[in-house]
Amino acid sequence: MRIRHLFSLSLGAGLCLVQAPSAAQAQIAVLSSTVEERVAFPGDRYSGTIVIGNSTARPQVARIFQTDYSFLANGTSAFDEPGSTRRSNATWITPQTTRVVVPAGTQIAVPYSVLVPSRDSLTGSYWSTIMVEGAPNESAASAKPGAPGVAVGAVIRYAIQVTTHVRDQGARTVRFENERASATSSNASMFDVDVANAGERAYRPILWIEVYDADGALRAKAKQSRGLLYPGSSLRQHFDLGILPTGRYKAVLFADTGSDAVFAKQFSINF
């Protein structure tokens, strides 16, 4: 997951805005996976590695820190203080360093360790993020050496999700909300639904919908696989169903969470 942030550096009383596109280009990149999952038991210790690359011609500084992470179907994401959410594992995780210099044209590996607490009450998924952020290059802060002003640029921030599935257990439960059928100006039918993880175990849902007419004939079907959905989080799923004649239909919505049972919900929709 890559997040872009604007930064500004105040350089004096004289206010002069200087565009600094080189500051956006002179960023590090995370080359390893940004979603790390592991099954572990209480008391287990395991480790991981974040690979940070620098393709520029000069050394780059990367700042490493932790946050919690959650998201909702309305499009909002939260990166709260580490350890502040109920299923955070941020306090279990120890990055080897909080700041690293990546030499020009090279890549380095930054290890981290995870120690799962020895608590029998732990079950299901726990997660947080390790953030890797390129530090603004000081030489890009001004167009001319010693000139007062403000430099404006972009900071690239990578969020590495570190997820621990304790005992690989926990209920995998789906809740469907806010079902909405609609049509475009060209009469193409669409269906939207919010999908919430109401259980204890994170999963990657496979979602599909089947639409039947009044005679029971299948008139449309759409399917999509989604990314890791955490307990208490939700996503908005959109299905394009093509052009359907105006009328009343029966729709069946399915969610496969990787457990033995497939969740389904049936309802009527009008186009």
- Number of domain modules: 2
Under CATH, the topology of the largest domain is which? Immunoglobulin-like
Low-confidence stretches: 4-24, 138-151
Count of helices? 1
Largest sheet: 7 strands, mixed
Radius of gyration based on Cα positions: 24 Å
Mean pLDDT: 87
How many E strands?
20
Overall CATH class of the largest domain: Mainly Beta
Q: What proportion of the residues is helical, as a percent range?
A: under 10%
Within CATH, the superfamily of the largest domain carries the name Immunoglobulins
H/E topology pattern: EEHEEEEEEEEEEEEEEEEEE
The share of residues in extended strands comes to over 45%
Overall SS class: mainly beta
What spatial form do the alpha-carbon principal axes imply? Answer: globular
Terminal Cα span? 37 Å
CATH architecture designation of the largest domain: Sandwich
Describe this structure in words.
With 271 residues, the protein is mainly beta. The chain folds into two domains: 165 residues, Sandwich (Immunoglobulin-like), CATH 2.60.40; 97 residues, Immunoglobulin-like. It is built from one helix and 20 strands. The strands form five sheets. Strands 1, 2, 4, 6, 10, 12 and 13 form a seven-stranded mixed β-sheet that branches. Strand 16 and strand 17 form a beta hairpin. The two termini are 37 Å apart.
